[in-house]
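Entry: histidine kinase
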Amino acid sequence: MFKQDQEIFNILLETVSEGVIIINNHQKIVEANDSVESIFGYTKNELLNKGLNLLVPSNYHENLSEYLKKFIERRKRRKIGEATDIYALKKDASIFPVEVELNPFTIYNKAYVLVLIKDISEKKEIEKNLMLRTQALQSANNGILITDALKHDNPVIYFNSAFQKLTGYTDLEILNRNCRFLYRNDKNQPGLKTLRKAIKNGESCQATFRNYKKDGSLFWNNLYVFPITNIHGTVTNFIGIQNDVTLRKKVEEERQYLADIFDESLNEIHVFDAKTLKFINMNFGAQKSLGYTMDEILNMTPVDITAYKNDLEFREIIDVLLNKTVNKLEVETIQKRKDGTEYPVEVHLQLSNLGEREVFIAIILDITERKNYTTKLEKKVEERTEQLELALHKEKDLNELKTNFLSLVSHEFKTPLSGILSSSELLSRYQLTEHQEKRDKYIKNITDKVYYLNNILTDFLSVEKLENGKVNYSFTYFKFSKVINEVVYNANMLLKDGQHIKYPENIDNISLYQDEKIIQVILTNLLHNAIKYSHEGSAINILITHEDKFTTATIVDNGIGIPKKDQKNIFERYFRAQNAINTQGTGIGLNIVKTHLENLGGNISFESEENKGATFSITFPNVAEP
């Protein structure tokens, strides 16, 4: 090579940025440029006439010579290192990656190889870092996506496996699409508004909103978005980091739900420390019921709002829970409000844990209504018991009355029948004319007994009709004096020796519109009682008072009277006063009188003192109302 050509060649070598080495067919270095010195750390003189193994790690030495020999023979340009990594060796023994291009050429029938060497350490390091970062992104648990903000609709240009795993979409369904497909039609969310505003303004933001997987299931996405800008400040990309917070949201919702139950419960819920007994929390219902604020409650213990005297007494109650003797405790006590009023409560108490802290949870039921109901129920039971006892007593009395009645009826019928029989037998013995007086006497006896039996039967029939409501009153105009006359006339036949009836005065002008026969029955009954229970020689007085609308008849006797204790029962059917047991009677007359008067719009009253007599007064309308 001429000197001028050599100079030109050297200039060309130095202008090449890659390292240039020329080896001859003996694989000896015959030329190297300055870049080679810079890359490998050798001077040019240290390289000349040296084998290429000097610049190659020892593990390549065995095959390098044979490889170059074949290459020289083939004389075909080739790049080494594009498909596989190859390495070179520096003077300081450090190994570094290179790309090598072998270029065979011939000068003056001598074969040479021009070796272009490019140090790709920095490129490999960049690739390594990029690969590491890519692997890091792919291995991240958070879904990561990158969008191209310079393209229309800001499409997704990258996503990691976590994003795909979370959403379930395929590559084609994710790439080149705006990520709004994740929230489908659920567009009206506060978090999405925040995100849209940040994207529009090229700002970072963090928002939580509902997203939907490919299968339609919902998940809560806590998305952190930040923009990437170029050197001109233009936003070129957005990077989004997803965080699936569905479980957290569910826990928050459950916690909120429990908190709502706690606060909105109609029952009081107290939480207090197991050691200090100081309240830790109390729901709104409890605060409202007790009248204390939460700040006031936090400085109090259950002893301050209950009937327990002190902590010692209260701890004796809850010790069974602390000792694990029982799992829960139910007690009734009294709670005191801030205003001093009290109310009964049922306490359900359990020991629990709040973190590392032992606490008591008490559910308080206001049992005021229950207590009132119980009290009312007990009072009702007591009343019903009294009523039942009274009914039983009445039933007993009734049975007794019925027994007495049957005995009485037997006696009342047997006695006059026996009198009739004996009078009839005696009457048959006196057939002579001079016996007329005796025959009249026995005939009168028979007549009196028959009359008496007729009255009894009339009374019984009246009772039966009154009980069945079969009494039909027949109202007519009549003179009251006519009724009085008939009653007195009939009664005269029953008078005892010396008895007399004082006839009422000024009754001739009294006219009534009433049931005449019933009025007569009533007066007859009362007058016959007065005769029956008065002594011989006594007087019976009849008084009549006639007013505009009512007429009052009063019958006064001086007989045996009615004992005080029997007066309350005197109108009960079949009842007979104790001092009248031995006197003939059925005990139904006064009951009939009272019932008739009430049916006619009237009433009956009496005053009596035992052994001094009785005064019965009846009042009834002058004009009956049919």
